[in-house]
Amino acid sequence: MKEQNSKEINNKFEEVTVKTDHIFQGKIISLQVDEVKLPNGKMSTREIVKHPGAVAVLAIHEDKMIVVEQYRKPLEKNQIEIPAGKLDPGEDPQTAALRELKEETGFDCGSIKLINSFYTSPGFADEKIVLFLAEDLTQGEMQLDEDEFLSCESITLEQALQYIKEEKISDAKTITAVYAWQIYKLTGKI
């Protein structure tokens, strides 16, 4: 079998954008509709949400995970999540992670490491979250934005796993962080 170079493999299903209609520009996201040419030559449309990207922090203090509880309007319910927030234009993800940790929880950290990054919903959005592990925490004062209403608590791994079962934790970034923490506790590696 003939070897294909990685560019050919990566592009074999490429959809070429023929036209873009910008539908909405919000404070955080924008929506566009792209007309695309499919690999078979036919035309189709793609609705795409553009997002500046975000960071999230798995913060461990005294063998507990620091979480925040807040109301999520799209879900019409409260959620328990790890601290997170959007990237400002040109902002370094690690700097943003330290900022969000401080703002939402009041904690500073002595050690921060990259865990991984991932796309939240690549079928319709380009949002990428960069996930960090923060340790050696010291507590200070929360610095919430004026439109942020949340509470902060620390939970055990067992509580986190139970919250996943109960759907109190149901967002991808927090579930990913809980399972990364579980692996970290078992192996000592992130």
Automatic annotation (TrEMBL):
GO terms for molecular function: hydrolase activity. PROSITE patterns: NUDIX (PS51462), NUDIX_BOX (PS00893). InterPro entries: Nudix_hydrolase, NUDIX_hydrolase-like_dom_sf, NUDIX_hydrolase_CS, NUDIX_hydrolase_dom. Keywords: Hydrolase. Residues 49-184 form the Nudix hydrolase domain. Belongs to the Nudix hydrolase family. This is NUDIX hydrolase. The lineage of its organism: Bacteria, Bacillati, Bacillota, Bacilli, Bacillales.
